[in-house]
Design brief:
This protein has eleven helices and twelve strands. It is of the alpha/beta class and 333 residues long. It has an eight-stranded parallel barrel, surrounded by eight helices. Strands 6-7 form a two-stranded antiparallel ribbon. Helix 8 links the parallel strand 10 and strand 11. It is globular. InterPro entries: ALAD, Aldolase_TIM.
Length: 333
């Protein structure tokens, strides 16, 4: 960027800040509704929607409730949702076998949503934690998450999800080599157009707690997810993870959590020619909502939090505020 020699009073930065219309005209970034992705939780047993107590304003949807919510989201311009299942404990075991069932709850939901809303883009999470009794993203053997054994399960799970109508598969497990195994499986089975959104820079974080409540995947004591998720102290490590995933066939890479890792979003966006998505995670959402509820902040903090993610280089953002933002700016109201 060219360096200019500017001096006061001929240059006054405040000229371009004089009113809202001028500020909008020269703004470098704008939040667009079609760049926001709404995560949704759906229960395999609930007959009605249930409030998620650790995530104010969010719900664990029944199947019918999910259909109604997606219909609402479509009307206000949210064209992409990420679906996360909450399963009863009887469907869980150490190996996460239910994830390999081609007629499992999430596969059935994907088929039914796609039938009702063919234009809706559906993101399906690829990890075993909703299906394992341990709450881990992989198969636990002798007190350790077995990387290579888990890869076989993730590949089969991915194929089931693609067959069921998922437009985008999002491997969030952080097993080494999983993107390559999944991509190879999809290519062999005729799903060459299925998009892979890799959770490439997924940090071991305390901000995931409310999400684990929502999907019922709290891990048992013993093994830490830090054995496979990234160390929050590291930034250079994200380059290695992202390069590996791109080389293995990832179309889009994700940074998670988003708000506390905007330096990583910026680094990745500046250095790689793939879209970078950010996930404003459950704990970040709840932190803001609780502060708003206590009147520490007003609702403007939501828009500010999203704007900084786009300014950092995010192409799109997964956020529990997607619906709120879309309703605020819905031109049909």
């Amino acid at each position: 960027m060219k360096s200019l020699s500017r001096k006061f009073p001929y240059t006054r930065s405040r000229r371009l800040r004089s009113n809202q219309t001028i500020r909008d005209l020269v703004a470098e970034n704008q939040i667009q509704v079609n760049k926001l992705i709404q995560p949704l939780f759906v229960s395999d047993t609930n007959k009605k929607n249930i409030d998620i107590t650790t995530m104010p304003g969010q719900k664990l949807f029944s199947k019918l409730g999910l259909f109604k919510e997606i219909e609402t989201l479509q009307k206000i311009g949210i064209g992409t949702v990420a679906l996360f299942p909450n399963l009863t404990s009887i469907k869980k075991n150490n190996f996460g076998d239910e994830a390999l069932n081609p007629e499992n709850f999430l596969c059935t939901i994907l088929e039914q949503v796609k039938e009702r809303f063919p234009e809706q883009v559906l993101i399906a999470d690829v990890a075993l934690d909703p299906y394992t009794s341990s709450g881990h993203d992989g198969v636990v053997i002798n007190g350790n998450v077995d990387n290579d054994l888990t890869l076989n399960s993730l590949a089969e799970m991915s194929l089931n999800l693609a067959n069921s109508g998922a437009d985008i598969l999002a491997p969030s497990d952080m097993m080494d080599g999983r993107v390559g195994v999944i991509r190879e499986t999809l290519e062999q089975e005729g799903h060459s157009d299925t998009i892979l959104l890799s959770y490439a820079a997924k940090y071991a974080s305390n901000f995931y707690g409310p999400f684990r409540d929502a999907v019922g995947s709290k891990q048992k004591k013993g093994i830490s997810k830090s054995t496979y998720q990234m160390d929050i102290r590291n930034s250079k490590e994200s380059f290695k993870e992202i390069e590996l995933d791109i080389n293995e066939g990832a179309d889009i890479v994700m940074v998670k959590p988003a708000m506390v890792n905007q330096d990583i979003i910026k680094l990745v966006s500046d250095n790689y020619d793939v879209p970078v998505f950010a996930y404003q995670v459950s704990g970040e959402y709840t932190m803001l909502m609780n502060s708003i509820d206590k009147k520490i902040f007003d609702h403007n903090v939501i828009e500010e939090s999203l704007m900084t993610l786009f300014r950092s280089g995010s192409a799109s953002v997964l956020t529990y505020f997607a619906k709120w933002f879309a309703q605020k700016y819905d031109k049909s109201n």
